[in-house]
Amino acid sequence: MTSAQTILILGAGLIGATLAWRLARAGHAVTVLDAGLPAGAASGRSFGWINASYFACEAHFHLRHRAMQAHHRMVAELGETGHRWTGCLWWEEEGAALDRAAGALTALGYPLHRLTRAEVAARVPALAAPPEAALWFPGEGAVDAAALTRRLLQAAADHGARLWSGCAARRLIVRGGRLAGAMTDQGPVMADQVVLCTGTATPELLAPLGLTFPMLGRPGLILRSRPVAARIGPILASPGQELRQDGAGRLLAPASAAHQADSAERIADLPGALAEATLARLRALLPGLGIEPEEVIAADRPVPGDGLPALGPLPGLEGGWLAVLHSGVTLAPLVGELLAGEIAGQQAAELAPFRPARLM
Ligand SMILES: Cc1cc2nc3c(=O)[nH]c(=O)nc-3n(C[C@H](O)[C@H](O)[C@H](O)COP(=O)(O)OP(=O)(O)OC[C@H]3O[C@@H](n4cnc5c(N)ncnc54)[C@H](O)[C@@H]3O)c2cc1C
After folding, report:
1. N or C: which terminal CB in the chain sees fewer CB atoms within 10 Å?
2. What is the atom index within ligand 1 of the atom nearest the CA of 222?
3. In whole angstroms, what separates CA 104 from the centre of its chain?
């Protein structure tokens, strides 16, 4: 595809918004539909950590590492986005396991430093018991994914994209072997290319077409505190608890340790019980800060069946595309660049290990 086409994006989360911006900016006529409000699903409930220190395989590492650089390109183009490049102090593993993690990341070319207890204490004076050693990932940061989603949709609208919120795609329309559009309650919306950025709702949209798209059930829970006066600085990844501070001083903390690798299929306790346990860990980690809860946020993470992103053409359906992934905050800007390029006809070799066809 070289000339401008009509593109229908289903889902106004961070991934749909990033693609809308890239495609509208490239001159395509973009319409974005969302069943609810922008960032109303995973993107509005995310921890928002941008990193490549967590990865499932080498290709996944490189995609994440390149995505971190893509964030800086995105910021340079968009201006104010609220990114906080604080770096991360990581000691989720200790002793020999920490050394192995450092070795593996160094071999992959990831910038890191090993810090002593005194160096950790100097960086985060509020820590009750600084670990004997921690890894310092200077390039990591975080962003409020909901705010970034809205900023991207605004930038897409500046290039002519149209956003229809509260407008669900009830079913997909196939004509002559092509994915040709989506049916809404108000009628059909047709397009040359249709991109599903529908997160956890993707399997139910594809099922009526006879396509099975497996996803893992991965519920998550984030505790957000009231603002605390102390400035924590980096993202902290301790063995029992990860946390970061937002621009207003609130602490954000997943209820599960090492939340990116969390494989629990259901949350058994009520949010209140998990929030209390998380609060207790936060207070033990950072005593004297007067940490009080503000909100507990539950969400389903969009995780394809093998845990890796699903990015690219829908098998057997010309004009159909899929972008469903976890770690979508880390990966969004690169997914936007590469997938928008593919929809415009430029193959991206980096996406080869992540094709939806492997799962379908
Ligand atoms: C608790 C939690 C913590 C996380 N932490 C991190 C992290 O630290 N770092 C990181 O990189 N990632 C993290 N993630 C993952 C990241 O937030 C997601 O990968 C990302 O937000 C996915 O964005 P998305 O646009 O694909 O999906 P979503 O934000 O889920 O958006 C999908 C959209 O599709 C819409 N939709 C669904 N069906 C239809 C339909 N039929 N018609 C129209 N619209 C429809 C929905 O309304 C929704 O707005 C976390 C996620 C959670 C839940």
Report:
1. N
2. 1
3. 23
CATH class for the region spanning 88-138+219-300: alpha beta
Q: Answer whether 169 contacts ligand 1 (Cβ < 6 A).
A: yes
Q: For 322, phi and psi rounded to 5 degrees?
A: -130, 140
User: Cβ(309) to ligand 1 under 6 A?
Assistant: no
Task: Return the pLDDT at 213.
Answer: 97
Pairing of strands 320-324, 193-196: parallel
pTM for this one?
0.96
Domain 6-47+145-215+305-359: homologous superfamily in CATH: FAD/NAD(P)-binding domain (3.50.50.60)
What is the spatial order of strands in the sheet that 171-175 belongs to?
Answer: 171-175, 178-184, 187-190
Q: What is the pLDDT of residues 277-331, one digit of tens each?
A: 999 999 999 998 999 999 999 889 999 999 999 999 999 999 999 999 999 999 9
- Ligand 1 within 6 A of CB of 60: no
